[in-house]
């Protein structure tokens, strides 16, 4: 099982902090899983120009191929101007339309205020749905007040992150069982 976490911004610390906690929880709960964090701040990624993702090189190719090889993806994104950051949107632009077919995708978002909680519903979920993701219906929304000195201090948020990891893997297990049953129906 390959799980890829995406810290979807090239600035700030809160989303990275949340993704670190999330992937550490995943490692603790599922020690046999191959877990990778793609912190977009650490990569130099060119703008998508319509090429096949395998035609890029360097960091761009690595990030795109790592996402395409994943079984499950956990996207962490800050909220900028009531939407996703351009760095995350660019990742989607680099990938093919059906990039998330057969993949489970879950999400967490950070924001300065509660007024932006619908960003996932109105911005991120439609993109993921269009790209054929199996979307975990619940997500974690983390406000500024839930952080103190680069740590999450709200126990409810920590509980919800643990549950998000569990829900992601449970969805993946169900999706895998369904696919195996479909494949077994064919005798060739």
UniProtKB/TrEMBL annotation:
SUPFAM superfamilies assigned: Flavoproteins (SSF52218)
InterPro entries (UniProt xref): Flavoprotein-like_sf, FMN_Rdtase-like_dom, NAD(P)H-dep_FMN_reductase
Alphabetical list of Pfam families matching this protein: FMN_red
Claim: Oxidoreductase is one of the keywords in the record: yes
Source organism, top-level taxon: Bacteria
Alphabetized UniProt keyword annotations: Flavoprotein, FMN, Oxidoreductase
Keyword 4Fe-4S among record annotations: no
Ranges where the NADPH-dependent FMN reductase-like domain occurs: 1-144
GO molecular function: oxidoreductase activity
Name this protein carries in UniProt: FMN reductase
